[in-house]
Amino acid sequence: MRRTSVLIPVICALAASPSSAQSPPNQIAFEVVSIKPSRPGGQPSSNIPLGPGDLYIPNGGLFTATNFPLATYIFFAYQLQGNLGQSLVPQLPRWAMTDRFDIQARAAGNPTKGDMRQMMRTLLADRFQFSLHTEVREIPVLAIVLANPGKPGKQLQPHPVDAPCPTSTADATTTSTALLQTVPGGFPAICNGIVGMTPGTSGRIRSGARNVTMDFLANYLSGEGTFGRPVVDATGLTGAYDFAIEWAPQGRPPPGSDFTPDLSGPTFEQAIGDQLGLKLESRKQSMDVIVVDRVERPSAN
Hints:
Layout: E1 7-9, E2 32-37, E3 45-46, E4 62-69, H1 70-78, H2 82-88, H3 95-98, E5 100-106, H4 113-128, E6 131-146, E7 156-158, H5 169-172, E8 182-183, E9 187-188, E10 195-197, E11 205-212, H6 214-224, E12 231-233, E13 241-247, H7 268-274, E14 278-294
Parallel strand pairs: 6-12
Antiparallel strand pairs: 1-14, 2-5, 3-4, 4-5, 6-14, 7-13, 8-9, 10-11, 11-13
Helix pairs in contact: 1-4, 2-6
């Protein structure tokens, strides 16, 4: 099934360049791959974090993920998030969002998470006939700027260059509580990726990251918010930063959820201003965009 091409803006937090959205010239691949439809009612699980960021424990080349739609595997392979990920959805056939797949694959040696992403791109091309290319377009964006020039908010601080900065749960602790640990200032202990943390008040969500760029932060904000357009960095802040943000989700919780939003808490946009010291400005900007060319149901094992 060939899909009509649709343009979407590229704002990858960790790979924000046209070449990062295309298959590498020298493809690397898993040695063995199995793709099967998931059993109904199963819970999504993976031995590798499938979101953006570097969080990863090397495991000898094993990739195993169950009960995820094709879209999740595409997001992982190309490090898609924010408005980029949201805008990808209209380009995909409905089954790519609703049908779930279990993927088990084995690679030689002890590949990095970046290698795993590249091998997933090869897998998607071989088994799902997935392909894309990039173009440049001028599009509406929201730019984050400092609300008070030269003064970030309390929860947005320069990253101390001499601070310990583990990038995996193995570096911090061997227990599952590693991602809940924090350092002074209320920032996550783990670096280089978005981490969910325990909020100060029930009914709210708290997350953050350490040792990330403002481009990374802008891309994260575009994914968590419902702004309807890309969020880009225009703060003028360079180098690495630590941030944490806590807000109360608006609207009803998903069916079956026991989460009760704190209706007195700040909205996401209010938290951006009050906690990070940022505001959003409407602009137009030329950006690389991804065009999805083709996607098919998976071929047989």
